[in-house]
Amino acid sequence: MPNIEVSDFPTREIGPLPFPPKTRKGNRKSDTPFAKPRISSPFCAPLVKFKASVFVLVVTEYFSGTNSIFLSRFYALWTKIVVPVHRNQSILCFLYIYKCSRRRRDIHTAIASARTGVWGIGASNQETDVGAVIRNGREVLLQAYNWESHKHDWWRNLENKVPDIAKSGFTSAWLPPATHSFSPEGYLPQNLYSLNSSYGSEHQLKALLQKMKLYKVRAMADIVINHRIGTTTGHGGKYNRYDGIPLSWDERAVTCCTGGLGNRSTGDNFNGVPNIDHTQYFVRKDIIGWLKWLRNAVGFQDFRFDFARGYSAQYVKEYIEGAKPVSSVGEYWDSCCYNGHRLDYNQDSHRQRIVHWIDGTGGLSTAFDFTTKGILQEAVKGEFWRLRDPQGKPPGVIGWWPSRAVTFLDNHDTGSTQAHWPFPSHHIMEFFTTIFYDWGNSIHNEIVKLIDIRKRQDLNSRSSIRILEAQANLYAAIIGDKVCMKIGDGMWCPAGREWTLATCGNRYAVWHK
Fold first, then answer.
1. Which of 22, 157, 209, 510 has the fewest beta carbons closer than 10 A?
2. Candidates 306, 359, 369, 469; catalytic one
3. Whole-number mean pLDDT of the chain?
4. If pLDDT is split at 50, 70 and 90, which confidence band does 107 have?
5. Does 458 participate in catalysis according to the annotation?
6. Residue 467, H or E segment
7. Is 344 a catalytic residue?
8. What CA–CA distance (Å, rounded) separates 325 from 295?
9. What is the CATH class of 129-225+301-464?
10. Nearest C-alpha neighbor of 402 from the set 32, 37, 3, 22
């Protein structure tokens, strides 16, 4: 779900307006192409890779303290094996490992940094350039769980489905929160460094991530950092201290609005639990360290930021810049505009708030297009005229900033057994965009056909949308210049012999040239 500069390999965006003003509407100039990054790597010889592996083994087995004798031997080993190959980078990596390893829980981060420093510098810039996926715009995201998945040995269950997920054409799978939580679903986190959850053990999770990597499906971690359940009581008799576990914060880490001694929240409160104060430097430093651990040591590649309304988007920008996920998406969900119980036609103020949040991240994150979801749910009631705004464009975030809009119909909150805002199930194939993994065989096959058409016709997030019809019972549009689609009961087909029916189903049809 930007305009990015990666410190080692700068990239820049072409165009006069890399970040549009927050009040600007219409097509964003930041959707223009990017220059390709320059890539270089001084470490590519097999001999260096072998020696580096030995070095990491030494660190893992023996680096349990920071005494001077050990450090002197450590440095001697480093200079003997690595410095002759590339002096500048090796000295830099040694200093970084020494710094990171002062705390035992950071050893995995240190080792991961060592690997990157020895043979990973620039070796796969696609993996560290957080703008590459957004510039590509060809991602298809699968939400790979629902609200009840924790009851079903989920990591092992999902591992068996990885080949089908890859074969179906999904590029990324969003997994539920993987860390220890006070609630089985994972959304009341406590010990962020424990990977034993109700979804399975740490071993099972890593086996799943390894299989996803083998099949080239990126794993998206659900990042729940708006709030955190304490372990002991502190100020006011509330559970706002985190003694006895990694990231052992005190009451200063909790906003004063939710029972702590920190500053006021920079977003909306998540009531009933301690909300994290992201204005505190020590909090942000620890969160970045944790995100780096998830990214480099555990094996997650993408991030989804839960309850993004709860803290300022500037901190999401800082976290993305620090941990460098391949792609990110934020859940900025607030209410659409209604007149009584009826949805307003004009939802510009709603989508503008989501656009503001994306702007606040520096364009480094995408966002779920809740505006489009709200409009689609009313459109299926015989109101397809809602699907074209006064400027003739799609009425959601996708109409203003398509490269940053992640469209979807339902997720674990809106649908599933929670059903806070469910999409009518009998209309699901008309508006399929993003789904969660509890489909049947019939809808599975239809979805795969649509993904295949998108891939074969080289559609992406920047492909143009020309809306031809938006009536009560009919919507039709041309996407790019080679795909045409229609939904609704109305009779319609594209003019011209060049169009061939690609697939069709209940109240929808797709053609291509």
1. 22
2. 306
3. 79
4. very low
5. no
6. strand 465-470
7. no
8. 7
9. alpha beta
10. 32
